[in-house]
Amino acid sequence: MTSHSPLFTPLGPALSGAHTVLGTSAGDISLYRAQPEGGADGAPALLLIHSVNAAASAAEVAPLYAHYGTRRPVVAMELPGYGLSDRSDRPYTLRLMTDAVHAVVAHLRATQGGTPVDVLAVSLACEFAARAAVEAPTSIARLACVSPTGFSGKRRHYGPPGGHRGLAWLHRVVSHPAWAQGLFDLLTRPGVVRYFLKRTWGAPLVDENLWRYCVQTARHPGARHAPLYFLAAHLFSADVNAVYEALDCPVWMSMATRGDFTDYQGRDTVQGRANWRIHQVEGGALPYFEDLNRFATLLDPFWSAPVQVA
Q1: Interior CA angle at 192 toward 55 and 201, to 5°?
Q2: pLDDT of residue 245
Q3: Its pTM surpasses 0.90
Q4: Is the pLDDT score of 308 beyond 60?
């Protein structure tokens, strides 16, 4: 069996700007860097973290990377198993993803004299970023969560610390060598990728550049490994609500109004807390692709808010 799709095509960069690879305990992590011409007058770095799905990459944060890269240092990381990061055949776990965030945050802090960084994460990556902020509370100054997971449905999750909600039998089935690559190739056909993006947008028109890159990144060697753990729910936290409630840093959260990710009835566990700011943003789960100015108008004041919460 090959370790990658027979449809393999070389993968180019997801974003413009400088691209580097950071060696970490979680494997090699792909980083894209942008900053204003002439420097950023001491502004802390902003770390952007894409979501988790079958064809994720830093391309999911492209509008934010371009927007904030003209104002302050911005780094977009690619999680283990995605983009140009390490995609080797290994267990993809909550610990691995969180450790990757820790490593990149520590690297950025070292480049700016030890001061904490700001972080924006999308969807399931919000769980990893929140866990990192709870485990190292002086490392992340502010956390923005775009369409975060963990708030849908009536059930709240206060399971074993660090535990996941995955099904071992399901992962064994979907990752069986006889059909794992064929199954993944079916799930990432161009038409299927477009179908899921439409559900993310909640609209028939999606960003065509993102769609093209999603199709391409799903053909990279090892592309199936992390998504199959995701498909079996191994990357969803069993204690996610306890993690969110343990956050001490300022938190900004956006909720979509269209598409598959509009259920945030569980937000009442954090709504009203002094450090949380929750906004309903018109659009799908990636609203900054649809109206960047409107999204930034809501988010920009948060980056200048006091770090200490009364």
Answers
A1: 75
A2: 97
A3: yes
A4: no
Q: Which CATH architecture has domain 18-303?
A: 3-Layer(aba) Sandwich (3.40)
Q: What is the token pair recorded at 228?
A: 């199959």
Structural domain boundaries in the chain: 18-303
Q: What is the dihedral sign for C-alpha 175, 180, 181, 185?
A: negative
Cα–Cα distance measured from residue 186 to residue 180, given in angstroms and rounded to the nearest whole number: 10
Contact call for residues 52 and 235 (beta carbons, < 8 A): yes
Please give the Cα distance from 72 to 40 (Å, whole number): 5
36, with CB counted inside 10 A (0-12, 13-18, 19+), is middle
**Region of poorest pLDDT, from 40-44, 154-158, 164-168, 232-236:** 40-44
Burial class (CB in 10 A: 0-12, 13-18, 19+), 88: middle
